[in-house]
Each structure stands twice: as C-alpha cells, then as structure tokens.
Design a protein that fits this description.
Low-confidence stretches: none
Strand content: 5-15%
Structural class: mainly alpha
Number of strands: 2
Radius of gyration: 11 Å
Largest sheet: 2 strands, antiparallel
Distance between the termini: 19 Å
Shape: globular
Number of helices: 3
Length: 75
C-alpha cells in the first residue's frame, strides 16, 4: 500500500468505521492509534516513534495499516 499522508496533522480518527470483519490490531497500531488520538497538532513521525518507543518504519507501517482498516482517514 502506498498511502502516505503528507502530514500527520491531516489524519482524523474515523468514528464511522465499522468493526465488521476487521482483523485484530497489531501492538504497533494500538500504540500509534492512541498517540494520534492524544496528539492533535504538531504530529511528526519522529515524535510518534519516540513517544511510542517504536522505529519510524514501524510507525509508518502502523499508520498505513490503520488507514487500510478505515480507522483513520485523511481530512
């Protein structure tokens, strides 16, 4: 998947997402989802990686997974 948001500040939690048939979230996706819910402005992959204790690559993969699941959308 090549979905890569230009800025993390444009990511919005999709409250209309349906849980039907959804796979379980990975540990990384859970950490990133919580961080995105808590951090609303000035989001960077560097800050996300530091706060979540993940690599930047893990953060990117988690964001892509959350977008694919429909839990996040670009607004």
């Amino acid at each position: 998947m090549n979905t890569f948001p230009s800025t993390l500040d444009n990511l919005i939690i999709n409250s209309d997402s349906s849980p039907e048939g959804r796979r379980r979230l990975t540990r990384e996706e859970i950490l990133v989802f919580g961080w995105l819910a808590r951090t609303l402005k000035g989001r960077t992959y560097s800050n996300m990686a530091t706060d979540c204790k993940l690599t930047i690559e893990q953060c990117i993969k988690a964001v892509q997974g959350l977008l694919a699941l429909g839990l996040l959308r670009v607004g």
